[in-house]
Amino acid sequence: MGRSATTLTDVARAAGVSLSTASLAFSGAGPISAATKDKVLAAAAELGYRGPDPVAASLRRGRSGVIGVVMGSAVRRSFRDPVSIQFLDGIVTTLAPKGYGTLLLPASAADETPDAMLTHAAMDAAVLMAGAVTSTSTIAALRARKLPTVQIGGAGRQGPAVRARDKDGMRMLGEHLRERGHTRVAVATLPWSNGATSGPVEVGTTRRPAAPITARRLDGLREAGVEPVAMWQCGSLVEDGIAAGRALLAERPTALVGFSDLIAAGLLLAAREAGLRVPEDIAVAGFDGIDLPWLGEDTLTTLVQPIAEMGRLAAEGAISLAVGGSPKTVTVDVELRIGTTT
Amino acid sequence: MGRSATTLTDVARAAGVSLSTASLAFSGAGPISAATKDKVLAAAAELGYRGPDPVAASLRRGRSGVIGVVMGSAVRRSFRDPVSIQFLDGIVTTLAPKGYGTLLLPASAADETPDAMLTHAAMDAAVLMAGAVTSTSTIAALRARKLPTVQIGGAGRQGPAVRARDKDGMRMLGEHLRERGHTRVAVATLPWSNGATSGPVEVGTTRRPAAPITARRLDGLREAGVEPVAMWQCGSLVEDGIAAGRALLAERPTALVGFSDLIAAGLLLAAREAGLRVPEDIAVAGFDGIDLPWLGEDTLTTLVQPIAEMGRLAAEGAISLAVGGSPKTVTVDVELRIGTTT
DNA sequence: GCAGAGGCTCGAATCGATTCGCCGACGGCG
DNA sequence: CGCCGTCGGCGAATCGATTCGAGCCTCTGC
Asked: Cβ(B301)–Cβ(B172) under 8 Å?
């Protein structure tokens, strides 16, 4: 707060009351007569007092009122991902009215030393966005600080988490596709492991992805009896989806499934590009339920996650942690929204 | 930070050194022998000390190391606007490595009382995103705190700002369109005033928009001798752009200009929907230079703002303010990128 | 008129570190 | 052998508020 010349002590002196009384006038946490309060406030205005120093108050109170939000490892990528952004939105809009601040923290990349902020910023608790969980150095840094955290999209193995029943969702989608008679389903998955590069994934193997999200969603499809005829792993980007689509179409699938809506949108564009009619020639489905107003006439068949709601739940969990509570892991349902693409 | 049983005092005692020496071992800001330092660090590890309390350190240092970022009034809208997000991205990625934290603050809506965070959070300086500037209560709250701020996209009238030469850019675009022989240009502008609703704007009037961004961009077009045959004001959303496009096409323009790329994308979709070939039947141009990988074959003619760079400049300005400097307003060039749509 | 009961105010301790000036000891040099 | 410079460690003040128990003053009720 820099050169703040005037402190509460000055105000108290000017108002002719004690420091403690002046404090009460601002915090309102105690009995104080209206007259005295006005006197203090007037003196404060007179002196141009900025209000109680938040840092000093935090020190005394033992809580900073700040919740950290650790974005995915690749900061730039997180900022391009509408799902992360909507999580963030849900978090901020929940925290702000409750008087909590949101501190944005980039997760350190794979094994770099974590940013100073991660280790040195004042926070009462933190929310870990799915993508960030993979960076071991980030987790280690947080644990070293003994900072309570809630994961969003994570497994909830090491503490409270907010997660969606994505396996169930994918099973529903798989069943939907089978009902529609699709047997040749090609899938553009999320990366199989942290830091994997885009490209084909061998099918017919029973290997499970190392990345939990990818694994769960794939499991869901398989539970529905859908065994992909081709797979391609890629990031949640339209570009990657287009590339995946071009590659996957070589296998002549009758349905394309993207593990995110952005990917699915890319698949759809690739299908259109190939001159295929959707859904007559090929079906396309995604995951997330984000707004894609630019798809034109089509609305994507997708599994809708209550994204903002998950952000809200994570924020509430973090607040609970901040005040010493121990929130439980929350699991939310995803809903199959059938659009015009299947 | 809550139950932190162990403090630096405990560590010092355990290590058999004084408090001041223990502090030096962590901060490194003073002469200390390697042996002593190791001894302290070992004692700290032994006790499970989390490191110096950031809040206490901030209080003593007089700086919190946190920069606030005030997002546009309509939080949800800001989070959907890729430009805001990329500003934020540029800001975060600049601040983090320099050891500054980014505190996300939703601006209060029009005339509501500002969120507690705005007035009570610990910050050394703040960045005001363009959209947030309009909310008077937000500005008032910040001013009352005497918090130094840098505006992004603002006028820079009341302090340092980072701005783009958008008028010049629009002039270049106007000239480009005239060179291509366009005389009937319809424009989908940003809102003319804070809180304006979407809809037609009367042309032929000399009225200037109250919103500075809208005004500057329109001025630019006019300087190039482009007088719109029709105008529609709307938010920076694809949906709004589509609606604007449908309405504007009634005037049979030969070119459509959107004041943001999202709007322009909507215009393009509306044009396609109307069966018009782009650019043969109608030209489309935007503003911002964001990635729109889903436009298919087309690449939008647009004015590229160096968005991340502007975020970086704003962040550096904020840091300068935080340490007591007085950064100047920075103005960056926009570049006309000619795509396939004109 | 007095005792009791509230309602306000005030003192003082405390939150956990940073930092500056001072001092002791040790080593080099005359 | 003694003096001075220097390096490293120590004490104490300080950052700016919050908060609780103690005390005072006034009002009420008998």
From this structure: no
Domains of chain A, CATH where assigned: 8-61 (1.10.260.40), 66-164+307-332 (3.40.50.2300), 166-305 (3.40.50.2300)
Chain A CA closest to residue B296: A269
What distance in Å separates the CA atoms of residue B232 and residue A94, rounded to the nearest whole number?
34
Quote the minimal CA–CA distance from B333 to chain A in Å.
Answer: 23
pLDDT confidence band for B288 (50 / 70 / 90): very high
pLDDT tens sequence across B304-336:
999 999 999 999 999 999 999 999 999 999 999
User: Residue B1: which pLDDT band, with cuts at 50, 70 and 90?
Assistant: very low
CB contact under 8 A, A293 and B144: no
**C-beta of residue B118 within 8 angstroms of C-beta of residue A92:** no
For B8, counting Cβ atoms within 10 Å of its Cβ (0-12 exposed, 13-18 middle, 19+ buried), the class is buried
How far, in Å, are A140, A170, A280, A282, B51 from residue A227 at the CA level?
Answer: 37, 12, 21, 17, 51
Question: CA A19 – C1' D17 distance (Å)?
Answer: 9
Check A117 against B106: CB less than 8 A apart.
no
Query: How much is the CA Rg of chain B, to the nearest whole Å?
Result: 25
The minimum CA-CA distance between B223 and chain A, rounded to whole Å, is 32
Chain A residue numbers touching B117 (CB-CB < 8 A): 65, 96, 99-101
Q: pLDDT tens for residues A96-118?
A: 989 999 999 887 666 667 778 88
Token pair listed for B84: 């805001």
Burial profile A224-248: b = 16 or more Cβ within 10 angstroms, e = fewer: bebebbbbbbbbbbbbbbbbbbbbb
Q: Which nucleotides of D are covered by protein (CB under 7 A)?
A: 7-20
Q: Which of B166, B68, B148 is nearest to B115 (CA)?
A: B68
**Is A3's pLDDT higher than 50?**
no
User: Which residue of A79, A149, A236, A240 is the best one to mutate when testing the B interface, meaning the one whose CB has the most B CBs within 10 A?
Assistant: A79
Using an 8 Å CB-CB cutoff, list chain B residues near A79.
85-86, 88-89
User: What are A116's two structure tokens?
Assistant: 């100073």
Q: What are phi and psi of A131, to 5 degrees?
A: -60, -25
Q: Which residue of A has its CA nearest to B271?
A: A296
H-only helix segments in chain B = 8-15, 19-27, 34-47, 54-61, 75-80, 82-95, 116-120, 136-144, 166-179, 212-223, 238-248, 261-273, 307-322
Q: Residue B4: what pLDDT?
A: 52
List CB contacts (< 8 A) between B105 and chain A. Answer: 96, 101-102
Cβ within 8 Å of residue B275, ≥6 positions away? none
Contact between B100 and A79 using a beta-carbon 8 Å cutoff: no
